[in-house]
Amino acid sequence: MRTDEDHSARGPPRSEGGSDISSQGNHPTRVNDQIRIPRVRVIDEEGEQLGVLGRNEALDVARDRGLDLVEGAPNAHPPVCRIMDYGRFKYEEEKKAKRAKKKQHQQKVKIVKFRPKTEEHDYSFKKRHIIEFLEGGDKVKVVVMFRGREMAHVELGQRILERLLVDLQEHAMLDDDPKLEGRNLSLMLSPKKN
To answer: Which CATH superfamily is domain 109-191 in?
Structure first.
């Protein structure tokens, strides 16, 4: 059976939910009165160390300057707290996250449709678009659509897809073999990794 001394020797204290209070990624940043540690190392808004202060004294210094006391490194001994404008800090962090998300390229699936009787000009026009999509980092689903009696000549659609694969071999990789889904013959192409 464990005693309270055994528990304290094994690791950091736990919150009511059972997770570590001191594990940085698992809890929201503590601000002002949420900080319960009796002594903290304080860094002011210019980055100067004010030393180790009592919690109430550190809160008074932050309030006198019209700012917040924010816990930065809860695992340090004593924990490090920074004096800053927390609302502005959160706003800047959200802006940074939005900018980073905008820069990310999410791969999309573009669909290019052919018919069994697609003319040469249309074929080359659509092929150019497929190359642009692949160079932009997107996947391309190529679909040959059949109507009515055209279903009796699926080999015409297969020829178009085979020709495309030969023409696009330096730009694309085939994800899977062509599939006949209802009245559509389709295949998926991915950009070739350089």
So the answer is: Translation initiation factor 3 (IF-3), C-terminal domain (3.30.110.10)
